[in-house]
Specification:
mainly alpha; 4 strands; elongated; TPR_rpt; repeat; mRNA splicing
Length: about 750
């Protein structure tokens, strides 16, 4: 490798003999050096044996002197002496080691194991006795000691060892080992007594449960019930203790279920659940639900599921108390439970208890007042009050309580910042249902006086309209218009009311007063409603006057189109003539035909007006509607005339004012505008389009586009011909080819 670069490989072909990974590993294994092994020494006589033992003892003593605290060295020394059959020397080594570290468990176990291998049982017993006396908290030593005694069939001795062990109050495994010892020898009464001592030392629920199951398995059912009852008495009625004892209740109920005492089991479950909060009894509720699914009726099962869902809602509300959607679901759950109780024919006390649960949920829900003064935070909250009041009115028939709920809700809402019309209106309609009309009117009047709002006016007006109090409705509409004279919808609704009452003079007065307002929101709606009214009444002259006033005021293209369409279409005959026709029992209302001539004049006026204002796109829209009108009502020459007024799109170069560069832009060009402004270029374009049309005609192919305004102006004398008429009807706009023609012939403009 030169200059830090990899060497060049000239021959990249594979080697003739490939070496595998297996061969590499085998070569490496063969080349390893063998480990050193001490030579085996054969002992021929006692002299050599004594010499060998002396040498080994010297080595062990030397290593012990160097590492006196190393138990490993002591164990090797002692085990070697034992392997030589020198038990006295081995005991001496173990004793010396115990002097160094008397708390070494490994040392005691190796010492006892050496004695047991040498069948020195009494020595092993003495060692275990010394070990457990010195180390009473080491369970392994006790287990070995007990196992030794039981192995020797010395059951009283094993029991005595256990008794010594139990005085130290060991963990649960030790107690269970003692109980299993008694069970192996069928001493069940002794085992029961041990359980009793165990719960006295460690009164935990799982110990009580084990004791109860033991008594059940040996057939002492009364004793098992007594054990569980004693456990429940021990834990008492404190909520914290009952929560701790859920396992005892569960085991007690399951035992009664196995004994087919289903009512006892149900009572146990209900006793525990009634004294535990819903958020802390999830597992117990799950067991109760499973029990009811297997052994309960439909009613008990539904009540169990209901309790489980209550727990879920409570947990969600603990996480976020202002989650109003959860409150809605919770309240609906309790209302459904109340309906189920009624369907089952429950007692009045049970029904009242279910109703109180619903009230409790609603009271807790409405207590969660939204923070801040923004209305968006209150939108969901206010429905809690409405549903609460509706519940009291429809379910419990407590009308006075429902009235108090409405009043409290109105006091809670900060009406100076915002209000809720639905709250006022529902309160008023509640009073109407209670036949308290004066109270309902007072409520809505207070609402309008305190916080006037469009929805309040509409609700009050609808209420009076439903009661057929038309004078009051008129008064309310007047107040409504005084509150917001710019609201076109209010004027229209007021006029529609008078139309229904057939007071047409008041209708016209209302419309006139409305359109005379200087500031109106969406005035076109009011004008349209006024014109539609006159049209339905058959007053064409009055409607025409309104259109004339509107085009003078607005001049919008839609107004001109609507005006022209009005003149062309038929309208009903006037109301006076209509009533005469009704007396003659005519089924259909006679119509007065429109006047296409007047409509055409309106189109012409509208076109000139838009042209004077320089509105090109609006003129195109008007021409399209005009052409459709002529195709329906006019002759062929009228269609050609309108077609001749159609514009073309032209590409022109203009100078951008911001950048100063010349850019190309598309523009709509009308023939009449071009004729008036640029006669020379108009003549040129007219001839070019005429030549284009002639070329297309002489070529024998079908004309791909209608004549533009320029060609129509050049061929005005032939406008009535069938060919031209058909060509003009193929494409109503004529923009596409005009676009390409001008772009090609007038690209240098």
């Amino acid at each position: 490798m030169q200059d830090g670069r990899a060497p060049r490989i000239k021959n990249r072909a594979p080697a003739a003999i490939q070496v595998t990974a297996e061969q590499l590993l085998r070569d490496a294994q063969e080349r390893q050096e063998s480990q050193f092994r001490a030579p085996k020494q054969r002992v021929e006589d006692f002299e050599e044996l004594h010499e060998y033992r002396g040498r080994k003892r010297e080595e062990f003593e030397k290593r012990i002197r160097q590492t006196r605290s190393s138990i490993k060295e002591w164990l090797q020394y002692a085990n070697w002496e034992a392997s030589q059959g020198e038990f006295a020397r081995a005991r001496s080594v173990f004793e010396r080691a115990l002097d160094v570290d008397p708390r070494s468990v490994q040392l005691w176990l190796s010492y006892t194991e050496m004695e047991l291998k040498g069948r020195n049982v009494q020595h092993a017993r003495n060692l275990f006795d010394r070990a457990v006396t010195l180390l009473p908290r080491i369970d392994q030593l006790w287990y070995k000691y007990v196992y030794l005694e039981e192995l020797l069939q010395n059951v009283p001795g094993a029991r005595q060892v256990f008794e010594r062990w139990m005085q130290w109050e060991p963990d649960d495994k030790a107690w269970q080992a003692y109980i299993k010892l008694e069970q192996r020898y069928q001493e069940l009464d002794r085992a029961s007594a041990i359980y009793e001592r165990w719960v006295a030392v460690r009164p935990e629920p799982r110990v009580w449960v084990k004791w109860g199951k033991f008594e059940e398995e040996r057939g002492r059912l009364d004793k098992a019930r007594e054990v569980f009852q004693t456990a429940l008495e021990f834990f008492g009625d404190d909520e914290e203790q009952i929560e701790k004892a859920q396992a005892v209740f569960n085991a007690f109920a399951k035992m009664e279920t196995r004994l087919k005492e289903y009512e006892r089991a149900r009572v146990i479950y209900k006793f525990a659940l009634s004294r535990l909060p819903r958020s802390k009894s999830g597992s117990l509720y799950a067991a109760y639900t499973k029990f009811e699914k297997q052994h309960g009726t439909r009613t008990t099962l539904e009540s169990t599921v209901l309790g489980k869902r209550r727990i879920q809602y409570e947990e969600e509300l603990q996480h976020d108390g202002r989650n109003y959607d959860v409150w809605f679901d919770y309240a609906r759950l309790e209302e459904g439970a109340l309906r189920d109780v009624r369907e089952e024919g429950a007692t009045a006390e049970e029904e009242e208890r279910a109703a109180n649960r619903v009230r409790e949920v609603y009271e807790r829900a409405v207590a969660q007042v939204p923070p801040g003064g923004e209305k968006r935070h209150w939108r969901r909250y206010i429905f809690l009050w409405l549903f609460y009041a509706l519940f009291e009115e429809t379910e419990t028939k407590d009308y006075e309580r429902a009235r108090q709920i409405y009043e409290t809700a109105i006091r809670v809402v900060p009406h100076k910042q915002f209000t809720f019309a639905k709250l006022w209106i529902n309160f008023a309609r509640f009073e109407v249902r209670r036949l308290q009309l004066a109270a309902a009117r007072k409520i809505l009047g207070t609402a309008i006086g305190m916080c006037p709002k469009e929805a309040l006016f509409k609700g009050y007006i609808q209420l009076e309209f439903d009661l057929r109090e038309f004078d009051r409705v008129r008064t309310l509409y007047e107040k409504y218009i005084e509150f917001d004279p710019t609201n076109s919808a209010a004027w229209i609704k007021y006029a529609e009311l008078e139309t229904q009452l057939e007071d047409f003079a008041r209708v016209r007065a209302i419309y006139e007063l409305g359109i005379s307002q200087t500031a109106l929101s969406m005035p076109e709606l009011l004008w349209k409603a006024y014109i539609d009214f006159e049209t339905e009444e058959g007053e064409r002259e009055k409607a025409r006057d309104l259109y004339e006033r509107l085009v003078q005021l607005s001049g919008h293209v839609k107004v001109w189109i609507s005006y022209a369409t009005f003149e062309a279409e038929p309208i009903p005959i006037p109301r006076a003539m209509r009533e005469e026709a009704e007396e003659e029992e005519e089924e259909e209302v006679p119509m007065v035909e429109g006047d296409p001539v007047r409509a055409r004049q309106v189109f012409e006026r509208g076109y000139k007006d838009l042209k004077s204002k320089g509105l090109k796109h609006e003129r195109v829209v008007l021409l399209e509607i005009w052409k459709a009108f002529e195709e329906k009502y006019g002759a062929a020459e009228d269609v050609v005339k309108v077609q001749g007024m159609m514009p073309i799109t032209s590409k022109r170069r203009i100078v951008d004012k911001e950048t100063g560069q010349t850019v190309e832009d598309w523009d709509i060009v009308f023939a009449d505008d071009e004729r008036e402004s640029n006669p020379t270029s108009f003549k040129f374009l007219q001839m070019a389009h005429a030549w284009k049309a002639a070329q297309a005609k002489s070529g024998g192919g079908p004309s791909a586009a209608p004549l533009s305004g320029f060609v129509a102006a050049a061929n005005a004398s032939a406008a009535s011909s069938n060919t031209t008429g058909k060509d003009g009807e193929d494409n109503p706009r004529g923009h596409d080819d005009g676009h390409s023609d001008v772009a090609s012939s007038n690209g240098g403009d």
